[in-house]
Amino acid sequence: MWIKRRFTIDEIVEHNKYMKTFFFDETIESSPGQFAMVFIPGIGEKPFSLSSKNSITVEKRGKFTQKLFQMKPKDFVYIKGPLGVGFRNKDYLAVAGGSGIAPMLYLINNAVIKSLLYGARDNEHLIHGIKDCVVYYATDDGSYGYHGFVTDLITEDLVSQHSKFAICGPEIMMKIAAEKLVELGVEPKDIELSLERYMKCGIGLCGSCECSGRRICIDGPVFTYDEILEMQDFAKFKRLPSGKKQKII
Questions:
Q1: Could you tell me the sign of the dihedral formed by the alpha carbons of 24, 133, 114, 117, in that order?
Q2: b (16+ CB within 10 A) / e for 203-239
Q3: Parent domain of 218
Q4: How confident is the model at residue 1 (pLDDT cuts 50, 70, 90)?
Q5: Does 115 lie in the same domain as 177?
Q6: 3-class DSSP state of 174
Q7: pLDDT tens digits for 32-65?
């Protein structure tokens, strides 16, 4: 699990100009919500949520993902994983924002999401054609689906149809979503959130992903909301590569 292995890219699905799914020639025996450290020689190593037992779904952002997006089938990367703690329940109402869709795709593949609320900044950042669950879309600019934030789609009627809840996306969005669910009567223990923090090692040694004393890489990345309520830095502070704390804007 902690040893890097070479994986060959078997297939690449281009969802849009910002999002791709990379399928590998071998499976990673994992569960939804776990992640892997992906290493590209000469570029570095980054954590990515698994979107199935043999794939990662990636949003193009910086130098690392730009290099990944240039790769083709039969190219290779090195992977360390599966890592971390995944989702624990089933029959979720899931809320995903932006690249937070990746672990939700794994949950959908395992048939444990009943409904998905999925938001992005615009239509060009959405993955379309998601099957096997009911999907409600939202875009910040109104270019597809509901015009507004994905958290606006959380309604009393929809919540009443579910008993478990999964959230992944920007921390401010996750905080708003969890608070709204609690206001609608959901117990914090029934809400699971997948956190993202800057990581160097992914195995609990370096402490770069620490959040209020919890190491996201091995204590998470999935936490119940009652656990997160004890993490004072959640949605307030993050750590830079240097280790310095910075306010989340």
A1: positive
A2: beeeebbbbeebbbbbbbbbbbbebbeebebbbeebb
A3: 195-223+232-249
A4: low
A5: yes
A6: helix
A7: 999 999 999 999 999 999 999 999 999 998 999 9
